[in-house]
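no rush on this but wanted to send it before i forget. theres a chain ive been looking at and ive put its sequence and its fold in token form underneath. i want to understand how the tokens follow from the sequence so walk me through it. thanks a lot i owe you, the record is right below:
>
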Amino acid sequence: GSGCATAAFAAMTTPSLFAEALGAGWKDLPEPLRDMHYVETAQAATGEACVTRGQHPAARLVCVFFGFPKATESVAVRVSMNRTKTGEHWVREFGGQCFKSRLSRAGPGHVFEKFGPFRFLLVVTWDGEALTLQVCKGWLGPIKLPSWVLPRSAAREYVAAGRFAFDVPIALPGIGLIVRYQGWLTPEEQGVDRLERDVAAAL
């Protein structure tokens, strides 16, 4: 029930994942970015996105494997973020199609992001205009990925029209663009029932 979940999360006294990664730089983030990344227990945001997919046949296979969204000029988006003992669990829904990842601590200036058996180390930087999450290393299980198969991705988060905005391109060497999704999000006011479902999805 919600009492057990609340008690479990109340025991977490460490900073939120991105606050810890950015350290003193956390306070420099504009409010829409801090609001999105300050996951105390569970929260969600809704908005809209444009999705572009690469044309290479291999790009389509990668999209299917990871559950990346289909190409569209406009689609409703919902992102739920749930705090766990090791980090955060993100569920991204594009028009009912969803893909999930788990983020965890990786020391100052970095976070890990895990998609199924794949784990990536991301460099997290704030340049005064955008928060950038750039893939710098990756593993398939215990095997480190060589640079020639490492995804090229530098996701950007910034403020546009007073809202949290995102631009996430993902490419692979020799294949080119896999997928790119761009759009905006605003925090969702969650009722208790919806919050409980989001928390349960992270456990």
